[in-house]
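Lab meeting minutes (informal)
Scribe: AK
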Amino acid sequence: MLDWDDLRYFLAVARHGTLSAAARALKVTQPTVGRRVDAFERRLGAKLFRRSPSGFALSAAGESVLGHAERMEQGALAAERAAAGRDAGLTGHLRVTASEWLAARVLGPLLAPFLARHPGISVELVADARWLSLPRREADIAFRPAAFEHREVFQREVARIGFGLYASEAYLAGRGLPDFDRQCEGHALVTMSDDPPAVADLAWLRAVAAKARVAARTNGREAQATMGAAGVGLVCLPRYLGDATAGLRLLSPPSPPPERALWLGVHRDTRGVPRVKALVAFVTDALGPLRGALRPGARPRPGR
């Protein structure tokens, strides 16, 4: 009989493509993943992966095992969610995931009174550019700038995030204000990379600053804000982050950057768990007074 623990390691390598990435996902060491996969292949008498310098790809035997492993995973996760749903107390652990700027600037500070009120609950706040999976129990509660696609996820829009275009005073002193009629020719940009999903501003920047050169890319807004404040280039940031970053000046482009909805998601099987319900209700209420700062209505005057 197949061991579910072996299949967990197999699935992690199949999904992430390298032993190091699988080890991070499983929270074990890379040699442990390698040993478990090798032992699993020996027990089956088949090679499940094709090894190469770039990583691991499924072999024909691995492809045949994959579907069975995923079905076993869904059954195991359903059992875990059912067990969690029987927990009647405001105790236990919660894993919450969000982008790094939202975790650091918004959710982290909001959690202090919640944790003081519920000392039996511990929260792991995972700041990650990747979208962790609720169906695979990579997180209990997730915040995203786009709607969830899984039918098993209960979701609601909890805020709107406004964006602005910024530059440091030092950068503007050296380069001058960008000429949007000339599509910011002669200017530099600090942009998000294409890796995080649903990046709000990339297409907009390509339209309003088509002649600017991309000086730097990053997969996180905090790093983007830091480079913008250091004078590397123009940056498009959430207003809540950009307005609070010392040294950045809000500019007035001809069209406003796109805003995004902030969605909160939980798995339907765990939606009724008391600690999950308590944190969802608390964060939803606590975001209310911040909605004006997350989505400021006023725009700067031209030439400011």
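Next up, CB showed the second protein from the same session:
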Amino acid sequence: MEIDTDPPESFAALQAAIAQRQDSLSPRLRQIAEYALSNPNDMALETVAQIAERAGVQPSALIRFSKTLGFDGFTEMQRVFRTRLTDNMPNYKERIRALADGGASLSDASRVLEHFIDAGVHALEDLRREVSAEDLDKAIDRLEQADHIYVMGQRRSFPVAAYLGYALGRLGRRTILLDGLGGMLRQQVQAIGDRDLLVAISFKPYSDDTVEVCRLAAGNGVPVLGITDGTLSPIAPLAGVTLTVEDAQVKGFRSLTATMCLAVGLIVALGQRLDREKTGR
């Protein structure tokens, strides 16, 4: 459904507009929205036909999606995605194209490593731009003030959750890793109080258990700190603070480069704050 509205002029405004409309989008347009926010570089650099093929939709659906957001057509919307790249990194287009080249060889170990290093660098550069100092401060506030910190992450998110559980404990924070051992996940969640904090980590395809734990916690008035991959993540509307990470991906294989960097940054920043308060400096 097309609506009469001014089109977003920045990528942040575009993200907000998509998030605001997500409940009213048809399944096909929501599919495009999820692809666009998960693959902003493709949206900036590829043709409408290439994007439509990768998103699994018809080119006309991309045009309809653009008009839903107030743009005259796809080209006008694509300029917003391109501005996200050119404003921050003049050579980003060429580097992304080289990385995404369908003919690039991954036939030997050194090339595989090289591609993941390049993808990791891009993901870290995205992290630098997308995570604001304000959101980081809010996350540190919640980690500092909580009586107990419960950490939840499954499948590829589990290493990040395990690290946070370990490192928070080393800082003297009372931390519980929600692992659901013995089928006791729901019982573990019921122990969380409104003076505690749930740290939930999940990326597409999202863990059903992690989303359900967030729903239970938020429904009981428990603050939630989400670490996830976009404004359309089911974690985002349940979290009081959301830190968004678009991690590295090569040929469908995702790394945790940027996510682990964010986790380490949170721990070090929290440790510094606790040390300043302890020493009075």
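CB comment: DSSP finds 13 helices and seven strands in the chain.
No objections, moving on.
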